[in-house]
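Good morning,

Attaching, inline, the backbone tokens for the sequence recovery test we're adding to the shared suite. The designed sequence is right after.
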């Protein structure tokens, strides 16, 4: 801790965020998000739960090796096996942290059937064990906001005596409210012996829509670490959103005089990437990063904005990395304009990638009056090395109408060999997917199919996400097109191509 008013930002997108149903990310995606978090100035990255799976362990270890600035943290339950596994993963980091936790509320104590004394002993043993491995240890009493205050004080004192350096106070079920959140932190800092030697953290969930308010109230009461995720990704209604607390502290510095190290101009880029890789689109009116957060459509607002942006804007779009003014791109735009716009959106493309994106941009611009930022983001999320894909879509025709089963007429090439199939289904998408499956039979389960119109109007681009699961492994396919059925076909084929690559990577090496 450098300054008493410095608030540490602890990002748990890769642990609590990734834990939300359906938000699974691939290994490469986790590494990419971690490096964006590291670059944007996140103080601590919770990279995963190493004992949970081989994949989590590998991701945490790799992130620990790659991180340049951030502390790398892994999660562990209150047992030696979890803690040892966590240490094995985080120990590669320049600045590792072990985060161990146990549920302390009456309901949570009931699960391992421990009485208060037995749990207190376990906390002492496990935190001591973690501290013997690592000098940076965070301890969390899960469901702290529903734990009896006297017992909470008692176990926090034990954890501090055993060597914990950060005490995190989770509102696991999103139950608290701002005044209560502040009172709890204030009471703990006043009452627990040794509290002034550790950092108190706040970890809020958004079940009642109060996670940001609760986190900020905790800071005003003395917490100096906020646990949060990009876009508020997380279990159920999500966690505190990083972009909300960071921008609130920046914009209302007059009444909340605290600092973070976050480079806020990197917010929009990482928000887009997390939305893409998790498959969880950001709601249009989401604070800070929603598509409409800086859009003004009513006449009165537009008029005011033209005279003075501050009339209706409390922060500038550029503060979060958005280009302030929108320069519409269309079919007459050239490469330089496209490159500049992509740069504004956070994509630094090299000459080869620009060549590929430009071709697809022109195809899109031919079909749309105006190409919006969101269209370009969708375009960038498409595979750019389509020419190396095993399966490639050549043509698709879908016939649909009342009283008939939709029929898909599909031509694809598989490793250069052309296949033509016709298939029907319960709906046009089902017909297309079953046609693809006839050409490339597989047993992967369709775990998610999601359509998201990225711009308004009847010529809107649809982004389609497809998630396939095979042997517990998940692959994602994405694509964008003004035609939802074509986007669906391309996303499905993209997912199968990724599945083939995944199988090749995990296949045992041939024996000599
Ligand atoms: O919400 C919670 O209680 C957690 C803990 C593991 C810190 O995520
Ligand atoms: Zn949580």
């Amino acid at each position: 801790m450098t300054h008493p008013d410095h608030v540490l930002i602890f990002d748990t997108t890769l642990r609590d965020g990734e834990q939300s149903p359906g938000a699974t990310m691939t290994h490469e995606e986790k590494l990419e998000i971690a490096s964006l978090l590291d670059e944007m100035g996140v103080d601590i990255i919770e990279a995963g739960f190493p004992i949970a799976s081989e994949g989590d362990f590998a991701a945490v270890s790799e992130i620990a090796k790659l991180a340049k600035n951030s502390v790398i943290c892994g999660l562990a339950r209150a047992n030696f096996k979890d803690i040892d596994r966590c240490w094995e993963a985080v120990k590669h980091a320049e600045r590792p942290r072990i985060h161990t936790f146990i549920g302390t509320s009456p309901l949570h104590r009931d699960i391992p059937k421990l009485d208060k004394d037995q749990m207190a002993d376990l906390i002492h043993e496990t935190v001591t064990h973690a501290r013997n491995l690592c000098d940076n240890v965070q301890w969390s009493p899960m469901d702290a906001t529903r734990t009896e205050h006297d017992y909470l004080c008692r176990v926090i004192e034990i954890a501090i005596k055993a060597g914990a350096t950060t005490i995190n106070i989770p509102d696991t079920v999103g139950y608290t409210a701002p005044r209560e959140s502040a009172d709890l932190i204030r009471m703990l800092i006043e009452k627990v012996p040794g509290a002034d030697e550790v950092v108190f953290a706040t970890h809020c969930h958004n079940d009642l829509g109060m996670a940001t308010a609760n986190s900020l109230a905790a800071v005003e009461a003395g917490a100096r670490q906020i646990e949060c995720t990009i876009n508020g990704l997380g279990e159920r209604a999500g966690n505190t959103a990083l972009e909300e607390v960071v921008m609130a502290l920046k914009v209302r510095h007059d009444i909340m005089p605290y600092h973070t190290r976050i480079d806020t101009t990197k917010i929009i880029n990482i928000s887009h990437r997390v939305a893409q890789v998790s498959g969880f689109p950001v709601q249009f009116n989401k604070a800070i990063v929603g598509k409409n957060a800086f859009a003004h459509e009513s006449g009165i607002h537009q008029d005011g904005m033209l005279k003075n942006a501050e009339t209706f804007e409390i922060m500038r779009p550029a503060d979060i990395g958005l280009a302030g003014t929108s320069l519409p791109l269309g079919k007459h735009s050239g490469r330089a304009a496209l490159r500049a716009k992509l740069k504004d959106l956070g994509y630094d493309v090299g000459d080869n990638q620009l060549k590929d994106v430009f071709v697809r941009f022109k195809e899109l611009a031919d079909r749309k009056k105006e190409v919006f930022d969101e269209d370009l983001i969708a375009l960038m999320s498409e595979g750019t090395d389509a020419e190396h894909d095993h399966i490639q879509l050549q043509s698709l025709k879908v016939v649909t109408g009342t009283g008939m089963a939709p029929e898909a007429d599909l031509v694809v090439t598989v490793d250069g060999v052309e296949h033509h199939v016709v298939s029907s289904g319960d709906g046009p998408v089902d017909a297309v997917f079953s046609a693809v499956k006839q050409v490339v039979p597989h047993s992967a389960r369709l775990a998610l199919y999601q359509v998201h119109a990225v711009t308004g109007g009847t010529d809107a681009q649809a982004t389609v996400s497809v998630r396939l699961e095979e042997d517990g492994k998940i692959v994602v396919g994405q694509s964008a097109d003004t035609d939802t059925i074509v986007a669906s076909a391309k996303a499905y084929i993209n997912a199968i191509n990724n599945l083939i690559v995944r199988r090749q990577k995990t296949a045992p090496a041939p024996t000599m």
